[in-house]
Known about the structure:
Distance between the termini: 29 Å
Strand content: 5-15%
Bound molecules: oxidized coenzyme A
Low-confidence stretches: none
Shape: elongated
Amino acid sequence: MKALDGIKVLDFTHVQSGPTCTQLLAWFGADVLKVERPGVGDATRKQLVDVPGADSLYFTMLNHNKRSIELNSKNETGKAVLTRLIEECDVLVENFAPGALDRMGFSWERIQEINPRIIMASVKGFGPGKYEDCKVYENVAQCAGGSASTTGFREGPPLVTGAQLGDSGPGLHLCLGIVTALYQREKTGRGQKVLAAMQDGVLNLCRVKLRDQQRLKAGPLTEYSQFGEGEPFGEATPRAGNDSGGGQPGRILKCKGWESDPDAYTYFITQAAVWEQICDVIGKPEWKTAEGYATPPERLDKLNQVFEALEAWTMTKTKFEVMDICNPLNIPVGPILSTKELIEDEGLRATGTIVDVDHPERGPYASVGCPIKLSDSPVEVTRSPLLGEHTIEILRDVLGYQGSELDEVINSGAVGDAKQVADTAAS
Length: 427
Ligand code: CAO
């Protein structure tokens, strides 16, 4: 048994933000029915293609454990099938451009009329207000949500991050909203509308930067390197390079091999509680008691000097040696791991965080498995569906179409090319 067994999800999502959410629901056991435009499907199927003719990794890595039905939701038969899907499903998830569902004739009011128990969950770029009609992609959200203005170095331009805070971030927020709404429905019997705006999701993840914005009123942010460098603070939270975001100063430091390996670095946190161990490790025992070094507040204006001394030591070790030496001493450090190192990590494979998946068109590939582990609801990652692979199965087994009624839908063109639908079902 899985946690969300029995929950049916009408998955009207595409690209990244919505699919990350419905993939999690599928991993938790929901039956996720991905509705795709006939002959086209989710645009990512054919974006960044690495194996000609096969679905891209962009698509396969975001759509595991789902079933696919082709459906033109803009013609009459298609609308009738969509209405049946809304009747049958517990959750509808969508991340179309603002207004697209209304233009199809499926406003929230209409959806509630069809099924008052349904939860309708949406990702949009912005919440209600002056930007609510905008189309938005990942990096725009990172910029509009406070991530870009606080990422990078003071002297450089704002930076976007590799972590997909703008898409996968809101996907996670939406997933939490959906399961919370399902829980509330247990008591009220009613569905509700769930919105995760991308700007809001990024801002939630940038909460500590808004903390610092307000702390500026009380004076300079003493834990930022900028303070020790004597650089005045402006009106907004500045970019802080690799400074730790919390009260324990930390930075990225070079390790042995940095000249040729772009990832030969470690993150090193000078946690106050282990200052004495740090001083011993780097050969500066005198800093344990020296005036100006012994306590955290005294050291704040000398962070550059402290980290230079630390780096002189880390440069004599590999990033893994730094970890091996510091871990037993409770000094918090972490190697900068490359994507190559991560994808080859046996430990991550053992826990199912990295998984190998086979695919009929592209063969085996590695993917990121479910990052949330439930002891009573294990996850088995299965491959993403081919376009329309389950069209007939869903029409027949989920929606109850049979005989001439089923033939009528297939021959109407609403679920794609009739011959192809039959061939796919046969294979
Ligand atoms: N049958 C018929 N029509 C369909 C359909 C189907 N099965 N599925 C989609 N369509 C139609 C939509 O109804 C829409 O038609 P209208 O413009 O006539 O209303 C059209 O396809 C295009 O949908 P879209 O506007 O959502 O897609 P887009 O490629 O132009 O924009 C995106 C993509 C992501 C910018 C936009 O969907 C968006 O802003 N979404 C919300 C924010 C979001 O999730 N962004 C993150 C994306 S991940 O990086």
